[in-house]
């Protein structure tokens, strides 16, 4: 572990491989996620893997979810790897892009959204 990893936390491996997430890596994955919102609320976490603030918010959100007992359907979007999908989300759902960002979607529509320190597991309930 490098000096900076000790100060700022381990590299992204843990969060990106967390079992609570379904990963959006294609437009088809996004379509399936939106379709599943017609069966119940889902949440999409848009994350910049190079941003310290985004990493911190992600880790805090994951801890909140894991300790809440509530197991919502969660989707993870790596903004750096899939920027075009983020753009499609902004366009199709008529929501301004931010990072990090949590979008709560029900019946194909954004019913709640937050960014940065305002992201909380409570928004999904």
Structure description:
- The protein is of the alpha/beta class and 125 residues long.
- It is 38% helix and 22% strand.
- The protein has 5 helices and 5 strands; from the N terminus they run H-H-E-H-E-H-E-H-E-E.
- Strands 1-3-2-4-5 form a 5-stranded mixed sheet, with helices on both faces.
- The longest helix has 17 residues.
- The radius of gyration is 14 Å and the shape is globular.
How widely separated are the two ends?
37 Å
Task: Tell me what the CATH architecture is.
Answer: 3-Layer(aba) Sandwich
CATH top-level class: Alpha Beta
Mean pLDDT: 89
Can you list the strand order of the major beta sheet? Answer: 1-3-2-4-5
Tally of domains: 1
Number of strands: 5
Key features of this structure:
125 residues; 5 helices; Bacillithiol system redox-active protein YtxJ; five-stranded mixed β-sheet; disordered N terminus; 5 strands; BrxC
Précis, in short:
With 125 residues, the protein is α/β, with parallel strands linked by helices. It has five helices and five strands, in the order ααβαβαβαββ.
Write the layout of secondary structure elements.
Layout: H1 3-8, H2 13-16, E1 21-23, H3 27-36, E2 42-47, H4 52-68, E3 73-78, H5 83-92, E4 101-106, E5 109-115
């Amino acid at each position: 572990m490098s000096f900076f990893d000790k100060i700022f936390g381990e590299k992204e491996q843990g969060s990106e491989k967390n079992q609570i997430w379904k990963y959006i890596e294609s437009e088809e994955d996004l379509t399936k996620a939106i379709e599943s919102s017609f069966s119940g609320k889902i949440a999409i976490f848009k994350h910049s893997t190079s941003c310290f603030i985004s990493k911190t918010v992600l880790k805090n959100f994951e801890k909140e979810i894991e300790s809440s007992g509530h197991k919502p359907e969660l989707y993870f979007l790596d903004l750096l790897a899939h920027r075009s999908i983020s753009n499609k989300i902004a366009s199709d759902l008529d929501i301004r892009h931010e990072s990090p960002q949590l979008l709560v979607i029900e019946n194909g529509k954004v019913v709640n959204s937050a960014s940065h320190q305002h992201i909380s597991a409570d928004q999904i309930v």
